[in-house]
Amino acid sequence: MSPPSLLAAAIDELYGIDAADFMARRKALAVAARAAGDKDAARDITALRKPTKSAYAVNRLIRADPAAGVELSGLADELRRGERSVDANLLRRLADRRREVVNGLTDRAFITIDEPNPTAGLREEVADTFRAGLVDADVAAQIRQGCLLRSVEWDGFGFSSRPGLSVVRPEDPGPSVSGSPVEELVEPAAGPAGAAESAGSAGAAAEDQARRREADRREAEELRRRLAQLQAIAAAEEVLEAAETNLADAARVVADNRHEVAELKEQLRDAQESLTLAEREAGTAEAAHRAAVRALERARISEV
After folding, report:
1. What's the CA gap between 255 and 261, in Å, rounded?
2. Residues 133, 76: Cα–Cα separation, whole Å
3. Sign of torsion, CA 180 181 183 186?
4. SS3 for 247?
5. Are 141 and 170 in contact (CB under 8 A)?
6. How many angstroms separate the CA atoms of 96 and 119, rounded?
């Protein structure tokens, strides 16, 4: 790669401008770098890819309002602490909070790029990217840089498109928050019993220790089960909400199309009526013309 001066400046500019201007501006920057004698920078600038529309929306929001990235990171910390508490009520409140923040950031992203009515698919891509930023510090760091190339698809269990999200990779993404912290809640089994005064007391201590270990194991397993269930419910609720949004959008499109078809049918009826009237008037005019021609011929004959 070339030294960061010209290339870094080009990246910062290109991923902050309107998507429609990307190609022309990239060409101009590459030409300028070549004219400055930096062929490596010119080559690297030419290789920069245009972001998808969803990535463009996220980039523009982060650049226009850096507080959005801070809000995303703050909620990620809350979610991480909430998972460690394994508090069912808290997890439910955090799921509501996550939905509120993701929807809010998504709305703001489309407002930033002046896209008041995005398609359901495009909106879901932006929302998925923010959801991914909540569960993975590496993705969150790339989001905060404002140089995403494409969206991230997160289904609640993992990524379907994670590598190469951004033009610039973060140097220190920090710890991932996607793992389950349930194991941290399980206290280690008690140490071996003190010196037994007799074989009978040693056996009793061993049995008690085994019972405690089994109880701890069962408690940890129950906590894992409850956490997985709550996470599955939260993920299912988000999928349902997205499906309901898609259904509402589809119903609106159908209604709009039906209305348009009705208008077109009405226009067609009006046009047919106009055509019928015009044909009738044309027939009347043609008959009048023929009558006038005959009258003229009779007049000429009478003169002779």
Report:
1. 10
2. 8
3. negative
4. helix
5. yes
6. 24
Model confidence pLDDT, tens digit, residues 239-296: 777 777 778 777 878 877 887 788 788 888 878 888 888 888 888 988 889 988 888 8
Nearest to 26 by CA among 36, 11, 40: 11
Q: Compute the half-sphere exposure of residue 33: CA atoms within 13 Å on the CB side of its CA.
A: 25
Question: Which pair of tokens denotes residue 61?
Answer: 């929001």
Over the stretch 170-190, which tens digit does the pLDDT of each residue have?
A: 443 433 333 333 233 233 344
pTM score of the predicted model: 0.53
> Is 98 buried (19+), middle (13-18) or exposed (0-12) by CB count in 10 A?
buried
CA distance 19 to 72: 24
How far from 26 is each of 143, 164, 176, CA to CA, in Å? Answer: 22, 20, 34
Half-sphere exposure of residue 258: CA atoms within 13 angstroms, side-chain side: 6
User: What are phi and psi for residue 166, nearest 5 degrees?
Assistant: -125, 155
Q: Kindly list the domain boundaries of the chain, sorted by start residue.
A: 4-145, 190-248
